[in-house]
Amino acid sequence: MGDIIIQGDFNAYTNTQLDFIEFDNVTELVNLDDSEYHPDRVLSRNNLDHKHTNNSGKLLLNMCKEAKIRILNGRTIDDLNGQPTCITYNGSSVVDCTFISEELIDSIGYFVVHDFTSLSNHRPISCAMFANFLSVPCDSHQLDSLPGKFLWTDEAIASYTENIQSQMFKNKLANFIAKSFNDSDSITESTRLC
């Protein structure tokens, strides 16, 4: 399925319900021929939002189990308690979340629930990942040299001013503006022909 990172406001209460399959141990399974199968990791998660799990939360937790993605809130050093991300008239909640592929959990540098701002009743959230970069040798193709810089001499300025004020240029510009174009390629082609 590939690596996944999803972040946003899901309006889902998940409390501390599991987002992984508990007791998913392959040693207990009989006749398992799938060597590609990897059991879910047990990853504890805290959450200061003690609201009961709602239907959106249940759907979200099922998606996590099926897609092998995990809620990052309440699982990192910078957010060990699962800080509330939203405050409304009826209390606080953890509805702004980051979801990440289970394989990427160890690549997380931090996950932070930031302070409230005057812009919203939601706290901004952010995360960072460690990345490995491979140095790939570049083919030794000969690249064309970049064109030289145009020098605006007094003569060039005078020529430009004369041409831009000419009736011929004004007619070409009026014709160009009057046309309708379907895409950028037709615009480019039209200006090339002028």
Automatic annotation (TrEMBL):
It holds the Pfam family Exo_endo_phos_2. InterPro entries: Endo/exonu/phosph_ase_sf (IPR036691), Endo/exonuclease/phosphatase (IPR005135). Gene3D superfamilies: Endonuclease/exonuclease/phosphatase (3.60.10.10). GO terms for molecular function: catalytic activity. Residues 49-125 form the Endonuclease/exonuclease/phosphatase domain. This is Endonuclease/exonuclease/phosphatase domain-containing protein. The lineage of its organism: Eukaryota, Metazoa, Spiralia, Lophotrochozoa, Mollusca.
